[in-house]
Amino acid sequence: MSVSSAANPPSSVPASFEIKSAQLPLVALLLKTPDWDLLASDLLKQFGPQGESPDFFDNDPLVLDFSSLPPDSPVQDLKPLLQTLRACRLLAVAARGAGAVWMQAALALGLVEAPLDLPRVRPARAEPVRQAAAVEPVREAARKVPGPATLVIDKPLRSGQKVYARGGDLVVLAMVNQGAEVVADGNIHVYAPLRGKAMAGASGNTQARIFSLCLEPELISIAGVYRTSENPLAPDIHGKPAQVRLSNDGQDKLLFEALNT
Predict the structure, then answer these.
(1) What is the DSSP code (8-state) at residue 109?
(2) How many CA atoms lie within 13 A of 80 on its CB side?
(3) Same domain, yes or no: 84 and 164
(4) pLDDT in tens, 50-83
(5) CA 139 to CA 118: how far, in whole Å?
(6) Looking at the domain assignment, is residue 233 inside a domain?
(7) Global pTM value
(8) Where does residue 87 rank: exposed (0-12), middle (13-18), buried (19+ CB within 10 A)?
(9) CATH number of the domain residue 133 falls in
(10) Which HAMAP family does the entry link to (predicted)?
(11) How far apart are CA 178 and CA 165, in angstroms?
């Protein structure tokens, strides 16, 4: 969110602090049901401590988006929802698209009202067991991110190990075993078998891709759109050199394409 201050005469600016505008990447939770029990079950199954991707978020700030709730949805206590989000390592800081009563409840809990017209990319969840909500990355303004040098890992990753290339690409030169996780805000390149979890575009980059010389993942995800091993890959992709990317038609669909080697 952007924060700006009124112009102050130079003589009145304190020496102890300075207020500047800030542009922060946020994610938004697009609420599709007021059934907090259903929503908690779906969120915890995917992102909770015992879920499929317990470390997908790292106390990321989040916007509650009420714009898809039915207009006649009864207003409920938001505290249980905020507790569920904290268990998923998500911190609700704002709300948008809510009716007056819903917004009043959100403001009473310390959330701020955010505008609905924030530029955003498509919803980030796909193929859930029950489609109750979508977590979607939101970017408030185009900005250049001076990412660090590409992170290179040259040793095998064992079960329980996780590597996160924050702000850049990740290159792995050895096997990613089952139970291991590789995460990057940019692209992921695995020049070996990929048998664990791979999550590219973790901060919402829908242009990120995943490459592997032997694609056999437990879970594959780009900008939050994911597919698990419960949905087997095609024979010409599974165990073969392949890349994964998001479709360009706005359908939030993962495309698996063989690489010619």
Answers:
(1) T
(2) 12
(3) no
(4) 888 787 777 888 899 888 888 778 888 999 999 9
(5) 7
(6) yes
(7) 0.50
(8) middle
(9) 3.30.70.260
(10) MinC
(11) 19
Tokens of 164: 């996160």
- Count the domains in the chain: 2
Contact 132, 259 (CB under 8 A): no
Same domain flag for 165 and 236: yes
Q: Tell me: do 132 and 161 sit in the same domain.
A: no
Which domain covers residue 31, as residue numbers? 26-138
Residue 167: inside a domain, yes or no?
Answer: yes
User: 166: Cβ–Cβ under 8 A, 6 or more apart, which residues?
Assistant: 148, 185
The string of pLDDT tens digits covering residues 180-209 is 999 999 999 999 999 999 999 988 889 999
CA distance 95 to 64: 5
| pLDDT tens-digit map of 118-158 | 443 333 343 443 444 455 544 444 444 444 568 999 999 99
Whether 238 is covered by a domain: the verdict is yes
Beta bridge partners, 244, equal 210, 256
7 Cβ contact list (under 8 Å, min separation 6): none
Domain with residue 239: its CATH number is 2.160.20.70
Separation between Cα atoms, residue 122 and residue 251, nearest integer Å = 8
Give the CA-trace dihedral at 211, 213, 216, 219, to 10 degrees: -20
